[in-house]
Request: fold
Amino acid sequence: MSTPTPPRTFHVKSFGCQMNVYDGERMAELLAAQGMTAADARDEADLVVLNTCHIREKATEKVYSDIGRLRRDDGTSPLIAVAGCVAQAEGEEIMARAPAVKVVVGPQAYHRLPDMVAQAAAGKRATETDMPAEAKFAALPKRRRSGPSAFLTVQEGCDKFCTYCVVPYTRGAEISRPFADLVEEAKLLAAGGAREITLLGQNVNAWEGEDDKGRAVGLDGLIRALATDPDLARIRYTTSHPNDMTEGLIAAHGEVDKLMPFLHLPVQAGNDRVLRAMNRSHTVESYLKVLERVRAARPDIALSGDFIVGFPGETQQEFEDTLRLVDAVGYAQAFSFKYSARPGTPAATMPDHVPAAVMDERLRLLQDALNRDQHAFNAASVGRTCDVLVERRGRHEGQWLGKSPWLQSVHFTGEAQIGDLVRVELVEAGPNSLAGKVLAKVAA
Ligand code: 5AD
Ligand code: SF4
Reply:
């Protein structure tokens, strides 16, 4: 026997990027609006939604091992829905490979999840991987409650077609959500408890729209509008493309106090031949120029990036150029990955794939350098005084965890509540976090 029909409890598990986290939250809100109850553990849920990531092979394979693990000791299994980018890329094939899956729903179609679950509960499998650009957001329930730090997807999809990347195929063409909808959603999030909003998009700095006066604006215009909301204390955005760092956005870093001094700007590699083969459409020099301008506007900005080692044909010398770039920039933090061939992307059929052992070694060297710089950045922060947005309790009695303006994790003890902005002095640095000493609570 299987679970009750229709399902009464659900559990949404998101993998991968922050946009998936956002989508997962919205799916949960959608199911709750149908009268279903969220279960903390997937063992207790009648419906389990796996909100998947397709960016690297490992992430994709994880879905299938997870599906296997959903089978319970008593032989039953929940109703399983696969959402996200694996759903988009593999569609009905998922059901052929994993018959326990009854619903497959892509990232642009999840507003239809309740109908599809009802259909599956009635015994008929459901697949939806259409990519209508706009329908989804309008069909979702309005935002209500939020933690102190909230995500807001403002832009989806990608037109850049980097040769290694599946995103243009799984998330489709670039679309920007309308200005008014975003201002409204941000207001609801702030009213529901958010003090910080991170604007999300695969190419978030390519966002464009028309403001309330009908003027064409870019992401900086949206940021300036959101900054006028007195309930919001902090604004961030991620992920950006170097070529979309406009003058206006760079200037906003110097002019908008609520825009936090942090920029995630992926470069991927530090060699121009590799960047060309990746179709990145920027060079090492043009990337460094952008960083120089951002630093001129906001000297204390913390920089972050993404890197891929072992792109097909990457030589040892070319890889070492990446290490040189890392040395030149001094990242506050960064993400680094081994190249993973994705079916259907141009790079997958390029010659000279780099052996796994070589990729392992390059990743180790790169991560050593990035960790060294992250630790150095944290160490250089000691002695600084800054506001920390309290996000949750720490592991120790009376301890709180939050984020500095530079997105460092900071722990401290003292009087505080979740959602407070607390002024602290940073007193000790570790590789991944800092200890703070409370000076005062910041007035709302
Ligand atoms: N292999 C390895 N890393 C990848 N990324 C995207 N596609 C691949 C791939 N095929 C990385 C890039 C991107 C981040 C989200 O994931 O660094 O910026
Ligand atoms: Fe992928 Fe490149 Fe688009 Fe980023 S810019 S989502 S890496 S294609």
